[in-house]
Write a structure and sequence with these properties.
Oligomer: single chain
Order of helices and strands: HEHEHEHEEEHHEHEHEHEH
Strand order of the largest sheet: 2-1-3-4
Largest sheet: 4 strands, parallel
CATH class of the largest domain: Alpha Beta
Distance between the termini: 84 Å
Number of domains: 2
Strand content: 5-15%
CATH superfamily of the largest domain: Nitrogenase molybdenum iron protein domain
Helix content: 40-55%
CATH topology of the largest domain: Rossmann fold
Number of strands: 10
């Protein structure tokens, strides 16, 4: 027994050291923290094949970034991040203060990758711009390019892999844009009016020539009243709009109020389905990536309005 004890002790020490080294390695793994699921997907695509950098998205499926309040865990994740990726343009309204306090951290703001001339003015949104820039794939291509440059600068050892991923993804975004045009061409001119819970689809409407109307404003923090519901119901009735849409990150009661107002006006309108606006869907939604989310939205809109 005297001979076995030192051997057992040595083995135990080696095992504990191994566990400690593993934990230390996990803690030391570089991390990119994105605010929204949409941005988290963009980072994951560009870092595909890079197993030694982890990506975290603070906001999960169906989470409204306009109303999201950061937890203490989120603040810790941001503080420990090697790179922070956020949308900006006041999308993450309640996180603004936290993000401003992390100025010494490497950050990438998607909105700053675009020229001001490409942005849609939103005077009702505190004099800022519409933050829903991902609904124009051509603008999103510019965001991806800027994000790729930032990631290559932050992780130069993976430059070739990031460049390869970006090139492939840019091609997929081009295909998405072309397919969207073809699908939306099935909607007659007088039905190219998209009515949703809040005003998240202006970029989509601009690039694909669709009139967009939202009950709430650019942000879901905006209040709506009986007058707003009535005006939207009048628009729907006057234009014989076939369908209106709920959003995955906005409570259904707002659009249900519009439906009720339409019924009182004798307008024949139905719910056209659920659109993903400010967040991706869950793993089983077939909308858990940007490409699938966008495709789902286009197919849902086309089916309901054609």
């Amino acid at each position: 027994m005297k001979k076995l004890f030192p051997v057992f002790t040595l083995a135990l020490i080696q095992f504990l050291c191994s566990c400690q080294n593993q934990e230390s390695s996990e803690k030391e793994m570089p991390t990119v923290v994105a605010t929204t699921s949409i941005l988290g997907d963009a980072v994951s695509v560009l870092l595909e094949g890079v197993d030694s950098v982890q990506t975290l998205a603070l906001m999960g499926p169906g989470v409204d970034p306009h109303l999201y309040k950061p937890s203490q865990g989120d603040i810790t994740q941001l503080s420990n991040a090697n790179l922070i990726v956020y949308n900006g343009l006041r999308l993450e309204g309640k996180m603004q203060g936290v993000l401003e306090k992390l100025k010494n951290k490497p950050v990438f703001a998607a909105g700053k990758a675009l020229n001001e001339g490409d942005l849609i003015n939103a005077t009702e949104f505190g004099g800022a711009y519409d933050p829903h820039i991902w609904f124009d794939p051509l603008l999103w291509k510019q965001v991806i390019k800027g994000l790729s440059e930032k990631l290559k600068k932050q992780f130069p050892q993976y430059l070739a892999q990031i460049e390869k991923n970006e090139q492939t993804y840019q091609q997929k975004l081009d295909i998405l844009h072309r397919n969207t045009i073809l699908l939306l061409d099935n909607i007659q001119e007088d039905q190219r009016i998209l009515v949703t819970a809040h005003d998240a689809f202006k970029y989509f409407g601009r690039v694909y020539q669709i009139q967009v109307e939202g009950l709430q404003g650019i942000s879901t923090t905006a209040e709506y009243g009986i007058k707003d519901v009535g005006l939207l119901a009048d628009l729907i009735a006057e234009n014989s709009i076939k369908a209106i849409f709920v959003e995955s990150s906005v409570p259904k009661r707002s659009i249900e109020a519009v439906l009720n107002a339409c019924e009182s006006r004798g307008a024949q309108v139905v719910l056209g389905g659920e659109l993903y606006s400010d967040a991706l869907g869950g793993p089983d939604s077939n909308a858990d990536t940007y490409l699938k989310m966008f495709q789902h939205n286009v197919e849902t809109i086309t089916t309901a309005l054609q």
